[in-house]
Amino acid sequence: MTRRPHHRTTRHRVAGLLTAATLCLAGITAPPALAATGTAAAPALADTQAAPLPAPAPQDGLALTPPMGFNNWNSTHCRAEFNEAMVKGIADIFVEKGLKDAGYEYVNLDDCWALPERGADGKLVPDPVRFPNGIKAVADYVHARGLKLGIYTSAGTKTCNEAGFPGSLGHEYSDARQFAEWGVDYLKYDNCNNQGIDAIQRYTTMRDALRDATATTGRPIVYSICEWGENKPWEWAAELGQLWRTTGDISDDWGSMLAIMKRNLPLAEHAGPGRWNDPDMLEVGNGGMTDTEYRTHFSMWSVMAAPLLIGSDLRTASDDTFEILGNREVIAVDQDPLGRQGTVVSSEGGRWVVAKEMRDGSRAVALFNETSSPQRIATSAKAVGLPAASGYSSRDLWEHRTYNTAGTLAATVPAHGTVLLRVRADSRWAQYPPAVEYGPDGRSLVEAGWPAALDTHLTTVGRTPAQHVSLTLTGPEGWTVRAASPSTARSLPTGRTLATRWKVTPPAHAEPGSYGLTLRAEYRAPGGQRVRTEQPVTATVAVAPPQGTSYLSDLPWLRSTNGWGPVERDTSNGEQAAGDGTPLTIEGTVYAKGLGVHAESEIEYYTGGHCTSVTAQVGVDDEEVDSGTVAFQIWADGRLAASSGVLTTSMPAQPLSADVSGASTVRLVVTDGGDGITSDHGDWADARWNC
Tens of pLDDT along 568-618? Predict the structure, then answer.
């Protein structure tokens, strides 16, 4: 557990933190060699460029690649289900499900493992209900399976939980020795209740205590600095530990994950073997995002060379969750021994290209779509740092297929999705089929019982032509889908496109919501290889607002994302749970109607060209009394129709209105005001449509 910096209620629990930095300790040795999975093996290397020299390894040999493992906090918090049986069960699953072989190594205990008071001898006491056999017995169990055990405490008098479990401030040497004697391999060191003592001083003391414990017991413990980025630990923590948190806590929603990713990406220069930027644990499988979003989460953490600490309860995880977490080709990107964090090549319009240099000279390239509709994202081999060559091989790490390309790297990426490629200059490019880029041209919004056009394309980006090309589109039962223009082509040389318009009609009784269609592409390479591939296409059945004036909080939206918990109707954002807000209040004025959000937030409505304006009173909700800066925006289709500028807790509600005439969709966006999302609770008070 760490302090949740977003909220006033949590800040009260951890008073005295704001000048401190945190160190979360974590160590790892290099995982086993990672073989490719999927229907085809990863191709042998055939690079024409010289591989870069690896960065110097730290003398202690700890965390030479980003730590991989499990931490219980995201799935259990301090609930009773966090206990010895759970920890042992996770260790067993690591072995049984192949996660250990994929590189996952640490099974980490977070807060609440101890009793609230130390023993008479001043030592920490494991909770006898949760851990009846003690921590050493758990460590022995984990070690017997070839894994390692991690533990948690805080660089303060108490940990972050409300129960106030003992922290290690003033007990560093005793606690470090106790951890080592128990067989602990990884320490996550939090920052709560630090009494205002200088962060570097506190974390240096624990570093020295861990070194002393290692010298005495022979057990190295990796040190992870959990500082939430408040004191720029990337500038000083490499001298103390092996990884450091760069942001506040993650939560299981798109807005939180996206905001954290954006704050971590610019810090690439500070990462390397034994010194990692940590954007917090994984939320994959916890249920708050779609599988597409979880694949993005896993892909981007891997490209950022981030620690991969599973945060879901694997005892109840789905097959899809295990498929994401166990993708060894993606893991290999994260664990590449060169230790480079990916850097941003471009990000215009929410279409991100992030490239990571690999030890073999190849590049891992993430094509990430931040937006809410499919986007064509393209770059080039040159732009991602590869040398000029006659051809390149491009391996899709989720599809597990390799293609040839003349140098263009492109994909139509679904909303919130990521295509992850591994690209190299390859003298054997011709043995692979040509790469094609295909998908829908934007999103599809339809009304029940009415036909709508859906446009798709397929473009050859390979070095060789795609031949005997065909596209098919199928819909759910009861839907009518037919091609309104040609859907086949005899040959598509490099750069040529097959554009197809489809007429799509949902049944008259279709309920509002998203429906899955399937776009299939089939073609042949000049050498005869047949390629069949498919991708999902989402069509959304939408209902426009009624005529006249209506409150936005009374109407369904197409989608929403929020930086902390769900968007709330007619109350403030509150905390993480649904329905935990209070009356919307800005500078003492209470509003009966509206939407409560937390930056980064986005709510999208379908208007279908029927509405003329949207109005609201906007500001920071009074549940944040001393901080919080937000900016409100109204977007009509792709046009910024209105913006509030940056608003703070000391400002009264500001009127905001926008002309949305003719717009098909309207988005209400709240950003963080440029200073991070701490306490950024925003209200769209008295928000109304005129239609």
Answer: 999 999 998 999 999 999 999 999 999 999 999 999 999 999 999 999 999
Pick the residue with more confidence: 3 or 673?
Answer: 673
Q: Is the Cβ–Cβ distance between 369 and 418 less than 8 Å?
A: yes
Please report the DSSP string for 350-403 in residue order: GEEEEEEE-TTS-EEEEEEE-SSS-EEEEEETTTTTPPP-S-EEEEETTTTEEE
Inter-residue contact 92 to 101 (CB < 8 Å): no
H/E run at residue 521: strand 513-524
Residue 38 structure tokens = 């999927």
What percentage of residues in the chain have a pLDDT greater than 70?
91
Q: Is 573 helix (H, G, I), strand (E, B) or coil?
A: coil
Distance, in Å, from the CA atom of 245 to the CA atom of 585, rounded to the nearest integer, reads 33
- pLDDT, tens digit (0-9, with 9 covering 90-100), for 363-381: 999 999 999 899 999 999 9
d(Cα 33, Cα 360) in Å, to the nearest integer?
14
Q: How far is CA 85 from CA 133, 434, 575, 626, in A?
A: 11, 51, 30, 43
Q: At what angle do helices 134-144 and 172-182 cross, to 10 degrees?
A: 50
* Residue where the block lists tokens 């966090």: 82
Report pLDDT for 106.
Answer: 98
- Bridge partners of 107, per DSSP, are 70, 149
Residue positions annotated with a catalytic role? 190, 249
Angle, nearest 10°, between helix axes 172-182 and 199-217?
40
Burial of 654 (0-12, 13-18, 19+ CB in 10 A): middle
Contacts of 348 (CB under 8 A, 6+ apart): none
Q: Which of 1-5, 300-304, 454-458, 519-523 has the lowest mean pLDDT?
A: 1-5
pLDDT band at 57 (very low <50, low <70, confident <90, very high): low
